[in-house]
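User: Could you check the structure of this?
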Amino acid sequence: MFLMIFLLAEVKAAKKILDEVKAELKSNDVPYQDVETGIMMVENAHKHGAWAGICGELGADLTLIRTFLEMGLDELSVSPFFILPVRNEVCGI
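Assistant: Sure, the predicted structure tokens are below.
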């Protein structure tokens, strides 16, 4: 029961953050794919006590690891096959 309540609270918090980010993006007319937008989204998440991360194949793109770290992302979630290459890339920066 506690886990369900916790997950529900997290979903509600994430929705609130997403709504605020969407409103800010619309008011500034900034494209979603822009790195500055990504940074703004990460900062907004951190401002509200949430972590920000990338998951899937994009998180394992070794050419983007430095960019993700500069954006302030807290987590790169990758498949087991990519853990060591991503870890080596992060440690090399």
